[in-house]
Amino acid sequence: MARMKLRKLEEYLQGVDGFEQPKILLEQYPTPPHIAACMAHHMQSQHEDIEGKLVGDLGCGCGMLSIASTLLGAQLTVGFELDGDAVDTFRGNVVEMELPNVDCVRADVLQLIGSKWEKSFDTVLMNPPFGTKHNAGMDMRFLEVALRLANTAVYSLHKTSTRSYIQKKALEWGARGSVVAELRYNIDASYKFHKQKSKDIEVDFWRFEIGQE
Amino acid sequence: MKLSTYNFLTSMAIKGVKVGFPLKLTISKKEVVESEFNPTFVERILPKLDWSAVYGAAQVAELTEDIPSVQPENIGENELLLQKLHHLLFEIDVLEGQLECPETGRVFPITDGIPNMLLNEDEV
């Protein structure tokens, strides 16, 4: 499969349906198509971590990153998501876009440690809940699971303010992390408590190499 | 749900369950979705597969003529078998059915292509 161009990828991703009614407790912010496209494109063009690989997406929501991975030629992408409405939308997106090679499993990401998925994925990618609301530290719990499930690399987004802590924890968990890019992550006014129309937060795009202590 | 995904699913998160694998698969509706054959990938995923689950899936999907009951040696040199494994693992999409825990009998439904592995709080 010829590699899809970045702009084409972003165009396709703009057709991915997002959360109908985002749930605040699950921090359901959709990954913007532009960011998802840039992330997936970087993984493939710089590290060849997508094409022909087994890819996992933790907290996949409606499937933005899973679908980006599939469009770039992943052999199989498996998304894991807790929320029933999100998995229905995920499936709707996959059927509508007629995508092969992509599955969604409704499961609690935190229960995947110790399962047969450990070390099974070549690449794990995710846009985890940042853990800023009622679930402090949730992104770190997702990261720990991701590092256990991947055998080569993990890609993730985390708030820039937690950078040095993440670096340290990743090392403890047997992975070397590096910040690929600093993003201004635009969160639309999805929830009532956002007074401004939209709010930018500073987010790091990370790559973690497994087994590089 | 592809049968490659099925190969990784367990019920071990249930309290008291020791192995929880392989789950007993029932298919009531499936479809075939064509996907590009990549022999290198099929060969690479083989060590991660449990042949008893693969053969069990082949039985349920009515493809036992394609898949031997015992894992043959040197599968990598057998392109025809790799192709049949590709079909079984990546092209059969289970739309409706269920997965049953071999130890507790707990049923996980597969609805509209999505296996629901969520447990209630009192089960973990």
UniProtKB/TrEMBL annotation, chain A:
Segments forming domain Methyltransferase small: 40-146
Pfam family, one: MTS
SUPFAM superfamilies, per the entry: S-adenosyl-L-methionine-dependent methyltransferases (SSF53335)
InterPro entries with a match to the protein in the record: DNA_methylase_N6_adenine_CS, rRNA_MeTrfase/Polyamine_Synth, SAM-dependent_MTases_sf, Small_mtfrase_dom
Alphabetized PROSITE patterns for the sequence: N6_MTASE
GO molecular function terms attached to this record: nucleic acid binding; rRNA (adenine-N6-)-methyltransferase activity
Family under the similarity heading: Belongs to the methyltransferase superfamily. PrmA family.
PANTHER family: RRNA N6-ADENOSINE-METHYLTRANSFERASE METTL5
Protein's UniProt name: Methyltransferase-like protein 5
Organism of this sequence: Drosophila mauritiana (Fruit fly)
Gene label: LOC117139783
UniProtKB/TrEMBL annotation, chain B:
Segments forming a coiled coil: none
Alphabetized GO MF terms: protein heterodimerization activity
GO cellular component assignments: nucleoplasm; perinuclear region of cytoplasm
Pfam families in the record: Trm112p
Keywords assigned: Cytoplasm, Nucleus
Subcellular location(s) per record: Cytoplasm, Perinuclear region; Nucleus, Nucleoplasm
GO terms (BP aspect): rRNA (guanine-N7)-methylation; tRNA methylation
CDD domains given in the database record: Trm112-like
InterPro entries found in the cross-reference section: Trm112 (IPR039127), Trm112-like (IPR005651)
Family: Belongs to the TRM112 family.
Name recorded for this polypeptide: Multifunctional methyltransferase subunit TRM112-like protein
